[in-house]
Amino acid sequence: MSIQTIAAHSVDLDLRFKFDFSDPAVCADPFPYYRALLATGPVMVQRQIPWAVVSRYDDVVKVLRDHQGYSSVNPLLPGTEVYDAFHEIPVMTFSDEPDHARLRRVAAPSLAVRRMENMAPEFVHLVDEILDDYWQGRREVDAVAYLAQEVPIRAFGYLLGIPKSENETLRALGVGKPREDGAFTFYDPNFMQSRAEFIHKLVQMRKGESGGQDLISLAIAAHQRDEKINDLELFGMVMVLVTGGIGTTADLISGALYQMLRRPELYQEIRADHSLVAPLLEETLRYDGPIHTLFRVTTKEVEVGGLTIPGRTPVCVVNGAADRDPRKFPNPDQFDIRRDNGDHLGFGEGIHFCVGAAPARVEARVALQRVLERFPRIRIAEGWTPKYNGNAFGRGLKTLPLILE
Ligand code: HEM
What we know:
Mean pLDDT: 89
Oligomer: single chain
Strand content: 5-15%
Bound molecules: protoporphyrin IX containing FE
CATH architecture: Orthogonal Bundle
């Protein structure tokens, strides 16, 4: 029996047409939808206008590598508003070549792997401060609010040279603002406005100084030296790094802790060998990472996996499903930190591959290792079940209450 037949027998194929990450049911448990998508391959779905949904591993890689056929610029077709979080501010994520490469070159060196590894001792210090502030002497702690979010907030404060007194502002910018129904959103006009004001203030402040080694100062220096990026682009750079880098890293830290703690044998193993934290993070990124879908728009008629997609069609690229494709990852629903998962798509693929992968990996690794070293006996509070905050791109745990023994 082929993989396709097995998958087709075990899922309701109509689910493929109901896949929509803004649907709370999909956000709560997207995996049945992924199985249905994977069983049939790329499909057109009718939303306000027709969309293509691409889910199989090889198809997703093909789309992400073809940046000429698939644009990252959102032309604001009906129903694509939620992918316009930056409101006409040019940012690399939503730019095509040559602008994209020019913008990326400004930020990439300051986020490079070696620079981040050299900063690991500073991240250890930051994590220890968090554990002193919120974990020491307590019996129960919410690892989302008091570790997973706090680590990238403080790390970004450090990377961007932002005073500690602004940590609460960074929290609002990075993890979004609570809506009245308790969910989080980035798409609230007041929130967008306060984000814009804060970043503007920050950039202006740094422009008055010189020689700083933080990310903003380095971007300003590149900007002034070569006129590589203009004022609005500089502003967008800070905005995309803060907005893109904090919530995602938080979701990775809480997600990895959850995947580890829900499996007692795995927890024992990692407790005995902290070097296994790195593969735990990679498998979390594959199995259920922070970003599940990416957005593209076709620039011309294209073909993928046997589906012809007309030009100017929005494409939902489901990297979260591709990472569960049995053609690429045998027994994909099994969480296995020893599997060969180096090619997972949790950070994307191609020219837009996550520019912040190194800080995310180092921050998350240090956070989990310090927890294992200082709090070697923890467990998830009884009666808790996972609930997720979702947005257009992905999802992350709302809370993770831990008992510290
Ligand atoms: C675990 C944490 C993270 C995950 C899972 C993640 C995931 C991703 C993914 C999947 C993409 C590809 C987007 C696309 O192709 O459309 C991406 C791009 C990007 N990420 Fe991350 N990210 C994380 C952390 C960060 C951090 C810490 C930063 C900032 C320092 C950051 C900044 C960006 C930026 C600016 C882009 C656009 C890159 C480009 O267009 O060339 N991310 N990320």
